[in-house]
Amino acid sequence: MWTNYVDISKLIDYCQKFILEAHIQIQIIKAIDQMQQEAKRLLQTGKAIAFVPTMGYLHEGHLALMREGRKHGDTLIISIFVNPTQFGPAEDFQAYPRDLDRDVRLAESVGVDIIFAPEADAIYDKAYQTYVDLEILPLHLCGPLRPRHFRGVATVVTKLFNIVKPQAAIFGEKDYQQLVIIRRMVRDLNFDIRIIGVPIVREPDGLAMSSRNTYLSEDERRSALSLFQALQQAQKSLAQGMRDARQLISEASEMIRSYPYTKIDYVALCDPETLEDVDRVEGPTLMALAVWVGKTRLIDNAILKP
Ligand code: AMP
Asked: Pairing mode, if any, of strands 168-172 and 114-116?
């Protein structure tokens, strides 16, 4: 009789735990030490952590990374952190869109377990002085136009890896140079983390999704399509036999300039791994674009295949 009682109470406990877990809501962690302890606890219980770093104001592009993340770990953690060290003094750090409540709902809809959303002064205290910098990859594309941007990115990703302790981390090909830099950094510094790249998610008309698209007026939104049009034009010309990089770049640039409000930062054709410029397109080649549309700087890219 007594043993029966124990069994039933155990069963009730188990059922309660099951019901509780089924209704567990997404966890929001702001403190670094709490995130580290939770990561340690998860690892001790044998749970693999998949991680998606973001600056928030989530859209379908971010959600694609999270859906991919679900496949690579038992626990899916995302970070929402607008990282001050990757913005230049004249850039949009203050204006960058933020909406945590909306982000929580979206993250919940794709099965995120934990959102790590630290405060900037906790990540960088007053005496902060350590940075991760790569020597060569940041000399290309966005690097010269955004000095210290990739130093800020590499530093914050390193810190987030140390805090969240993932076995896999997911990044978008939308920020192609960033993805190449993170892959190199992970190899150089022996992080035991698998880096997974996810293709660019686009609006139905082809515009690459970006939190910064919210800055665009209706007219600018129409001009923003010029980036995708230029990439498509280049792929078409390549298919018709054009191989000369200068010619392809000039054609793509003309396409962009034919739209109002546009100002080109660069149109480049480069090696997808080293990011070095190519003269001729003979194998898979990265076409990368950075274009101002009004006061909004947009980037896009595609791997062109002859
Ligand atoms: P962000 O919040 O802009 O820093 O982006 C966080 C991550 O989402 C980065 O790895 C981006 O490359 C990725 N991402 C942003 N937009 C897109 C997109 N349209 N398609 C795929 N990945 C994206």
From this structure: unpaired
